[in-house]
Amino acid sequence: VQLQASGGGLVEAGGSLRLSCAASGIRFTINNMGWYRQAPGKQRELVASLDSSSSTRYADSVKGRFTISRENAKNTVYLQMNSLKPEDTAVYYCAASILGPYDSWGQGTQVTVSS
Hints:
four-stranded antiparallel β-sheet, seven-stranded mixed β-sheet, 0% helix
């Protein structure tokens, strides 16, 4: 299984970005998919997750600003990020639960929010 993330970049505070992550090499619908992020000097944290029944979970810091969605048929997950803040600056990773909880990871995409 490969996860390919894209959509990161540099944006001013208050702006928006949309991240995408497509899973390939798998023929069944992945149950849990999500986004984590890791800022310099900080631990990796869960940003948002979504299971195949559309149950979502968000970090408190992004509630109301970020929206996770997916296309089950494509095993693709998206993260729409609005009202971005400098503290959202991090490398964002997509993850998927294939054989176990979040056992498959993408390569990461950099999101930088300037003040």
